[in-house]
Amino acid sequence: MKKTSLIFLLMALVFTNFAIAQDEKPQTEMRTLFGNNDKISHGGYGALLINYSQFDGKDVVLVGAKGGWIINHGITLGIGGYGFANQVSFNDLTIGNENYDNVFLSGGYGGLLVEPILFPMSPVHISIPVLIGAGGAAYVNEAYYDNYNQDWTYYTIDSSPFFVLEPGVEIEFNVVKFMRIGLGGYYRYTSGLNLEKTGEHIMDGFSAGLSLKFGKF
Q1: Which CATH number, 2.40.160.20, 1.20.1250.20, 3.40.1010.20, 3.90.950.20, labels domain 2-216?
Q2: pLDDT tens track for 5-29
Q3: What is the pTM of this model?
């Protein structure tokens, strides 16, 4: 949790710097984090996300989306989430009294997004997204059975919810006024995952990825 504590400390410093950077006001006028109400700017964006990570040493591609409300160019409040895009395979897996072959891990996660933005007017700047939420994961067995249609059938062997906290740092490029490209690094912390033969923190670890943002910034 040391990395998580450092992230929250950094966020506190960002908020403090954001408040100090506001225009000076007479002492008789109330000052707020986002300046006077008549000067607050509003925007928003939607983004497509693709990340690379590893679970238990196995390569994982995460595909997702996020979006939110941008307040005064300096902070975004919204939601985001990811799903597992590739099959994370486990062979010769014994669960209970059954032995399974060709089993893969399926799932995803999402939640609340808080994203401070540093130097947003610069063509190259930094954002600090923090995703707080929950997800679910399951062992899914792929079994072939011979019937008239020769279908593949999938069924869940074991499943579990989990909590997730994922802070990150992104370098963003203002391509045009309505589009930004981001390159990011993230650390995913999970708890509460309870799948047989799988550690609670199998999904903990670093990831790196690309984001394509479209909106009013």
Answers
A1: 2.40.160.20
A2: 444 444 444 444 444 444 444 444 5
A3: 0.79
